[in-house]
UniProtKB/TrEMBL annotation:
This is Mesencephalic astrocyte-derived neurotrophic factor homolog. Residues 26-121 form the ARMET N-terminal domain. It is found in: Secreted. Pfam families: ARMET_C, ARMET_N. It comes from Arctia plantaginis (Wood tiger moth). Keywords: Disulfide bond, Secreted, Signal.
Length: 161
């Protein structure tokens, strides 16, 4: 009877591990951002968790949109309310894959995996005159352009070249 209990516990542990694994398309912002950040690290920085944290803070200063929100959740920004950078830096120093790091981060803060990238607008096949102002502002923000709404209408209504 004791052996049956051990097998049941092992089976339950295996099922729990499978249930906690990331599904396809889940944590896309986390995985892409961790991979992008890890690619910027040199070999001597990768071995030290404290230097990884310092580099991540530098990385977050120039991040935008969803990557910036990811940095906020981890504590990589100055205005972040909490900080779980150790949950990123230690596994990175061990060369753990990005998806496994994101699984660990999801356990600490589930909203990290709720982030999704916005769909990209195909500028060649879309009629700018029919886009919503929100989408036009997003396009301009992606181009690092700051302009007022009147300028947006002027850009749309200008003659085609």
């Amino acid at each position: 009877m004791y052996k049956l209990g051990v097998f049941q516990l092992l089976f339950l542990a295996a099922i729990t591990q499978v249930a906690l694994a990331l599904r396809d398309g889940e944590c896309e912002v986390c995985i892409k951002t961790v991979e992008k950040f890890a690619a910027t690290l040199s070999d001597d920085v990768k071995s030290n968790p404290k230097s990884i944290e310092a580099e991540f803070r530098k990385f977050c200063k120039v991040s935008k949109n969803k990557e910036n929100r990811f940095c906020y959740y981890l504590g990589g920004l100055e205005e972040s309310a909490t900080g779980i950078l150790g949950e990123l830096s230690k596994p990175l120093s061990w060369s753990m894959p990005a998806d496994k790091i994101c699984e660990k981060l999801k356990k600490k803060d589930a909203q990290i995996c709720d982030l999704r990238f916005d769909k990209q607008i195909d500028l060649k096949n879309v009629d700018l005159k029919k886009l919503k102002v929100r989408d036009l502002k997003k396009i301009l923000n992606d181009w690092d352009e700051n302009c007022k709404l009147a300028e947006v209408y002027r850009l749309i209504n200008r003659p085609s070249m």
